[in-house]
# Entry
Amino acid sequence: MGDLAKIFKAYDVRGVVPDEFDEPIAEAVGAAFVEVTGAASVVVAHDMRESSPVLAEAFIRGARSRSADVVHAGLGSTDLLYYASGSLGLPGVMFTASHNPARYNGMKMCRSGAVPIGGDTGLIEIRDRAAELVGTIAAPGGSLIEKDLLTGYADYLRTLVDLRGIRPLKVVVDAGNGMGGYTVPAVFDGLPIELTPLYFELDGNFPNHDANPLEPQNLVDLQRAVIETGADLGLAFDGDADRCWVIDERGRSVPPSAVTALVAVRELAKYSGATIIHNLITSLGVPEIVREHGGVPVRTRVGHSFIKAEMARTGAVFGGEHSAHYYFRDFWFADSGMLAAMHVLAALGEQEQVLSEVVSAYSRYHASGEVNSAVSDQARAVRQVKDAFAGRGEFDELDGLTVSGSGWWFNLRASNTEPLLRLNAEAGDEGKMTAIRDEVLAIVGKVSE
# Structure
């Protein structure tokens, strides 16, 4: 039996199965979820991990014990669960640990309409109530309905981005043995896309590589396949397929900030003068490009529950994060890697340029990418960095420490899910970016010694 305080994070649940997260806990969370949200009905989906069906069934027992009816969607990506919550008007729970290793599992929760449940919007109450309920769940009372939502999900996405008229494209997709292998064929069916699939077999043990496209080593196979097949682009999805990473025709990564700017411009063409959300780690180029196209950029902290809340508050049409999460008002303010990929396909397929030429207009700065450091005393490390940069730039502590100067910035913040400090740095000049990155890492490294 695990410690619920350990597995309940800032905006989801995640832990090692069964040491930290097991069936009795999932069952108790199911009952607590219904009690806290007041839900009469709940929709549940799960990824391909070996533990996911069992944990989902335990949650369903708990929810039904509180007389809630449950719509069980079965296998799905996280954005399929958001589609289910939005289209059915039901609170939802997705069983996944996203890109974490096979021994992990977790839950992402939302209210009706895919409204996120985070630490300050009900997750703590669910945790505390579940802790009281572990081992006490009675026989089910509510009904269980099994419903296949894949076709509806694919059809809905195709109404948001119409790809039927694009020029034929050769696309390599690396699903990483995750849920992209389930959703991509349904979405691409009948479109002018020649698909080369990599690792579409659903396997929660991730036998080929981790389903985490943020790590460069996990993109190597995709990059090679794009070059070897002469593809127009490559797409890599994480384990629950809510994130998408883009590779151009040369086999090079397209920065998520460039994708954010590209999609923002497309959305602003539909919704003139609209608000676009970007987190504080996206490139300086994103707000610049948004303003140039008549939009209103709004900066926010990192994390899906925070992004979604700010989008709902401002009525933003789109939001992007450095981590390749992309959020859409037309998708209930929820994130969908698939929908972002479709925008990239549309931008490429509606004209004759290659992808590297298309995205060059959206990449203006040199970025370090996210550099992680294991640090036991994170607060001390941040203080020392702050002291070192005193008087050299403006300080901002919206989310971790951001220091910015003329044409450069860096952010140093603690991970919400791991004992790490995450550094992102950017500058107009690559040498300047490298110098800032290395100086911060040197200070952090001394603290961790």
About this structure: The radius of gyration is 22 Å.
